Amino acid sequence: MSTNTFSKETETRLIDFFNHIIAPEDMAKVIRQVNYTMALGVMREKETPQNGIENNFYWLNELAEILNPYLEVE
After folding, report:
1. Which domain of life is it from (predicted)?
2. What is the dihedral of CA 39, 59, 68, 4, to 10 degrees?
3. How far, in Å, CA of 23 to CA of 20, rounded?
């Protein structure tokens, strides 16, 4: 897994976004809802997922987990 570092400007903009526009928990909820809706659409359209679509669902879920750990809570 690669580790990318954000510039200070990007970090500041992300912090401002999550502090003033939307709570991380709410953003995680929206990501999970969108991911679920897209998955249903793909499954209804085709029996087998398109190439790479599995990775997109995985990474969206990973982002949601970073914003609001839900699956790892004991």
Report:
1. Bacteria
2. -160
3. 8
Separation CA 54–CA 43 (nearest Å): 11
Angle between helical axes of 53-67 and 24-45 (0-180°, round to 10): 160
45/7 Cα distance (integer angstroms): 40
* pTM exceeding 0.85: no
CA atoms within 13 A on the CB side of 27: 17
pLDDT digits (tens, 9 = 90+) for 5-21: 778 888 888 788 777 78
To the nearest 5 percent, what fractions of the chain are helix, strand and coil?
A: 70, 0, 30
Q: Which pLDDT tens digit goes with each residue over 26-68?
A: 888 888 888 888 887 877 777 665 666 777 778 888 888 888 8
Tokens of 20: 């003033």
